[in-house]
Records
---
Amino acid sequence: MASERSKARSTRDALTTEHRRLHEPFVGTVQPWRKWGPYVADRSWATVREDYSPDGRAWDYFPHDLARSKAYRWGEDGIAGICDRYQLLVFALALWNGRDPILKERMFGLSSPEGNHGEDAKEYWYYLDNTPTHSYMRMLYKYPQQEFPYGRLVAENARCSGPEFELIDTGVFNEDRYFDVFVEYAKAGPEDICIQIEAFNRGPETSELHILPHLWFRNTWAWTNPPGPEPSIVPHSANNDSVGNDSVNNDSVNNDQLTLVADGSKTAVNLSVQGPYTLGKHYLYAPLGEVLFTDNETNAPRVYGDWAKSRKPFVKDAFHRYIINQEPCVKHDGGTKACIHYVYQVKPGESALLRLRLSALPRPEPLADVQEVIRLRREEADKFYETVHPPKATSDERLVQRQALAGMLWNKQIYLFDIERWLEGDDPQWAPPDSRKRGRNIHWRHLNSMRVLSVPDKWEFPWFASWDLAFQCVSLALVDLDFAKENLWVLMFEQFQHPNGQIPAYEWEFSDMNPPVQAWACWQIYETEKRRSGKGDVSFLKSCLHKLLINFAWWVNRVDRQGNNVFEGGFLGLDNITVVDRGQEFPGGAILEQSDATGWMGFFCLYLMRIALELANDDRAYAQLATKFFEHFVYIGAAMKKMGGRNYQLWDEDDGFFYDVLRFPNGDFHKLRLRSLVGIIPLFAIEILSKADLEPHPDFLNSVEWFIKNRPDLVGNACFMIDSDSERHYVLSIADSKQFQRVAARLWDPDEFMSAYGIRSLSKYHREHPFHLGNRWVSYEPADSEAQVKGGNSNWRGPVWFPTSYLLIHSLLRFSDALGSSFKVRPSGDGNSKSVSPRKMAEEIANRMINIFVRDRAGRRACFGDYSKLQNDPNWRDYLLFNEYFHGDTGAGLGASHQTGWTGLVANLIDEWRR
């Protein structure tokens, strides 16, 4: 999609230097200012890509303890890492406090079997600032001065079944005995990056700190027989001939600085049509320090056993062994991995300051203007975000919005994965076990990614997930429309979307099913650009629609096995939402007919219809597609209430709620009377069409009116006409006004779904009234999950989640428009809540979700929970984590701690409700 960038830009977009960078033309597949970015994972060990085990147990095969010793095949990781577009060369930070048993080269956390609630990062780092072209980036890592408690974190979490035992609970931050390590990157040019590392001693005593900037090449050469050509990193004075005529002249270099030359001209990435991608030479300029070299090669005896022999005598973990164990295991004349070792004695309240420069240009005085470049880019970032923040946002809301968007921009990652090669192996002499060809992702041999993707986060979930990515793109559109469009398109690109039409779900199992939200996201991004510039990107919309049609056909053929427009979509991203694992087959041929799956499909239909109508403005043939999806929506709405003519419904008139139904082969059925998001999702499927907008499409308009007049048995009250101000509108909704009233009453009830911080994913009613099915049960769990369904990694049994709540807010606004200002929602139960309009409900939910992060009158942020240090300490209280989900009663952050992905939707809420 790089060649289909939209032409129209808003006046506002032309205001800042960063906007002008965004619109610079591409050179081949790369826009120059985006060639370098934070595309390095925070964790690559224990991922599916690096799992070459016979049983698919990724966590056990490649644990954290081996990460320093085993060369990665599919992508590097590091602290505050940056790399080029195809990750040939990587720069990242390493640290040592003089006490740790491990050189701190990467973030630590628990594996899924180790954690009491699934995998869990056990570090504190914060993404504080970033621009779309990564012209300026800033992050903070909090590094304890005491020995890092690796063993205790594992042991304590193995023992407890309650809340996760976190790093702050160990006491290592007591008396402020830690370093605040700030890392800033500022580009003087597309491939000229100024780097500043400043480590503040927050403790009461002078403390030792080792800072080791690392520069290395990703291992692209060791996987074939014979191996491919190797790049090199050498000190510039070691062999000037090796770096060519453009090497730095010795006479022009200050005596108090050094230069490393990384020559990547021998290695290439094959881009097929575009030809090979090579990096050429890059220079790392730095103050004088101890320069160490090794090779980015696996330490085979440590990883595989004493019988194994390493390819090279110098291996990946050499710096760790040299610094920690004082082993003579490093080189000084060059290699494929390098670092510069600095040792500081930092006094209390003071800092160690280090400035470097990574550039494709030889420079005589490279460090002289680093500070000035950083200052200038920081100012430009401020000006850029002034155009992003809405005018009514408070200063604290602006802080929240900026950090949310910064986190999303930091969570861009080069996602390298060739499934065919992963299944078959690179070298026939070292083929993977045969069991691999019967295991995970065997039906996705076509998937081959070399894309920079937005991932949920780069530690817990350093891989794309299809519905996460859709929400992430909607947020990224606030700052970078082109990247948002490109990433959403990737899901439908031939190298991702399955030939049968399925969109890959997520790395652990691409064949799993996430909700079909891509059509909605396409429309949101299209509307954002149209609103901002006055013209939408029709080419983008058309391309997406063609692929979404194939995906829709897959859904209909795959998850509507009875052909009755009622869908069985599996777990649909809601992990443990119900009493059974919905992703598994049921014994005896039973089928779970799902309210949420059917609601999602109605939602899918309406956005396909809306997109087709928009395209029909230029091509009348698309109106026929719009008619098709209108009719399909009508059939889905009817099926939810009539179930293909059978004597039960997904709607329950007694309870006033939508439920899943477990249907048995003999015709018996059992309603799962569990009030959860499953029964709220049907509300997402609502659309309002004006007759004036439809008059240019008479065939579509006639079809709508014919159905309303002639097929009331299908349409019911879920497709009807309303007249106001001499204008007619058509309302399409799975839930009619009475059903909406009853579901919304439970939403507004504080004893059911409405918490002080948004909509709970499961009704609080079930705290006192657990739902039972045989010997299984579900109760209201507002925090971490007590059940281990789907590994217990996420909890949909009570916490507040941003993606579904965001969709609900927009649905409430549409219901308000459809039902009029006089329509009020009456709360269920005996609570003190007053009747409100759907619009007021939407506003209240949005404000409560924003208030998860914003300080209240007492100065507290709900997301920090009961941690007084996070709430009150000036060195903690304004640094935010955008958790995966939030406590259903207190708003405290839970789950993946750095999942700025869809929780970044708080930036959209601030944008929409503070204009």
---
Amino acid sequence: MGFFPQKVCPHSLEFLFSFARGSARVNETETEKSLDREIGVPYPCRALAVPYQKQVLIRIRLNGMQKETAVPQKTLSLIDGVALIVGVVVGTGIFKTPSLVAANTGSDGAFFLAWILGGVLSLIGALCYAELAAAYPHAGGDYHYLTRAFGKNVAFLFGWARMTVIQPGSIALLAFVFGDYLSQLLPPAFSPSLCAFLAVVTLTATNVLGTQKGAWTQNVLTAAKVIGLFSVLLAGLAFAPPLPPPATGSPQAGASFGLAMVFVLLTFGGWNEAAYISAELHEGERNMIRVLLWGLGTITVLYLFAGVAYINGLGLSVMSSSDVVAADLLRRSFGEGGARIVSALIAVSALGAINATIFTGARTNYAVGRDFELFAFLGRWREKTNVPANALLLQGAIASGLVFLGMMTRRGFETMVEFTAPVFWLFFLLTGLSLFVLRRREAGVPRPFRVPLYPLIPLLFCISCAYMLRASLVYTGIGAAVGLVLFFTGALFLGAARLRRQKR
């Protein structure tokens, strides 16, 4: 799930939806289930089921009609999978969240404990996802598991949540990171909120003009991110001047370890995206668990080193009050020039992440529009520019509104975390529960990898998700309330859609 979703291929989607909406109409019958087994795309799951991947065409026959569809090729190696997870997870969050974790822990020991726990909890979740991904090597990932376990209604709510909360919230969240760091390079008139708004509007418009124009920043994203992180490690571990003796005092009022874990696990967010590559992973049954474990182990070590660098260069108290912790560290080690260079690198990295999230999120919305008649206007593809224009515009409008919400609260990034976290952890919890449901309901399905110490490990994962769901509600503010209102609005649309079907 996470905040960096998979790419989707619009051309592959056409086939998947042609069965549900075309002349060869399909119902959920034994024929449909046979189709599910053959191409791995169950009828309720078609909307979000196809990532951007290498494919091979196969021919199938359904109700006397021959059709072609694309299925993934197993082309990714173990190293490819690990690199993908590290590349997806290690993003701009590590340049923003450490200050918020410091503000909610109050001591060096608690600060590092939070990051270690984040790695451990992510590994526990990875074990659960490894079983699901190995047993159901399907491009739809979470969407596929939730549909098999709980049915189409939950699948609709998941699609709705991605469309209205998770994707737009992720775009706005990244936009505030971009705005915070870009404002270090501009006159005071360019506030972080203004920079965030301009980024959302400009990149949405760029994507509406065409996919090739919308993908230009991806070529420099990885390089900027790596150089920025290396600069932080170098400045904090090798060049930071000695710190004065720390002031003694009580922990900051309002600090909460639970809220600190919300920010830590946000920074770890994205590891579950490995579920989306399970259908493409060479020897996936054997390599799935290795990809998750090696990837998360590498990420945890990187985050711990980054934490040491921040603590060594700034100290916990200075970190706690910093909005641009990486720039402040470079400023102390190398002066204003160092701060400006790293701010530019992080701004470029954040801009590329915004662009990628806009690109992928719009295609998710397009798929929802093709699968659910109520949102058919989102399922229109503009051939001239080869983009889902309506889906892009709706997503951009929601994300722009969220930027204004963050501006009103004067806590843009934190408000966006509050906005997305409850819905995010709710569906993580449901995915964990789906493991129990599918183990019992589909006991005959081969499971090349089984979670060790079952049911203890999955139970720990579900308990962790429930705790994080509670923390994201108890320790947060207006952002969480707005996110939940938007999410539950989806239930009203679901009810309206069911009533409409009954009247036919």
